[in-house]
Structure formats: structure tokens, C-alpha cells
Amino acid sequence: MARTLAFPVPSGTIEALDFMLGERRRTDPTTPSRDDFLRSLVEDAVAAGMLRLCEQARKRVTLP
User: Fold this and answer.
1) What does the pLDDT profile of the chain (64 residues) look like in tens digits?
2) What is residue 55's DSSP assignment?
3) How many distinct helices (H) and strands (E) make up the chain?
4) In the list 9, 24, 30, 52, which could disulfide-bond 13, CB 3.0-4.6 Å?
5) Angle at which helices 34-60 and 13-27 pack, to 10 degrees?
6) pLDDT recorded at residue 34
7) Are 21 and 34 in contact (CB under 8 A)?
8) How far apart are CA 32 and CA 23, in angstroms?
9) Are 9 and 42 in contact (CB under 8 A)?
10) Considering just the CA atoms, what is the radius of gyration of the chain in Å?
11) Measured between alpha carbons, how far is 54 from 49 in angstroms, rounded to an integer?
């Protein structure tokens, strides 16, 4: 079953992100809060997805 983080995600995703955050905190004590960390990951993923869509659209459109 999927859990929700502003949108559905596969089960185990939140747990994996929590583990990753814990590992990062061991090496970098200045790691942001859980919410800020997850928000930055989601923002990065959305930005990467938007860039990918723009690149795909650019390839489909040929300018004179």
C-alpha cells in the first residue's frame, strides 16, 4: 500500500528516506529537519522532471 507525501509514493519509500536522512545526520550534523529534507528532495525531483519534459518537448519541436 502506498503512503502519501503530498502525492502517492510506493510503500517503503518514506522508510528509505528516513533511513537516508539518519545516515546523513551521522556524517553531517547540520542536516535540516525531516520535513525540510523531504521537501528539498521533492523539489529537486520535480525540477528534474520539469527539465526532462522541456528537453523532450524541445526535441519534438523543430524551429525554422
Assistant:
1) 445 556 677 788 878 888 888 888 888 888 888 888 878 888 888 888 888 888 888 877 665 5
2) H
3) 2, 2
4) 9
5) 110
6) 82
7) yes
8) 13
9) no
10) 16
11) 9
Task: Print the SS3 string covering 18-45.
Answer: HHHHHHHHHHCCCCCCHHHHHHHHHHHH
4: which strand partners? 8
Q: What is the DSSP letter of 1?
A: -
Q: Report the distance separating Cα 25 and Cα 37, nearest Å.
A: 11
Altogether, the residues listed in the chain come to a count of 64
Phi, psi of 6 (to 5 degrees): 70, -10
CB 11 within 8 A of CB 3: yes
What pTM was estimated for this model as a whole? 0.52
CA distance 9 to 55: 25
CB 28 within 8 A of CB 20: no
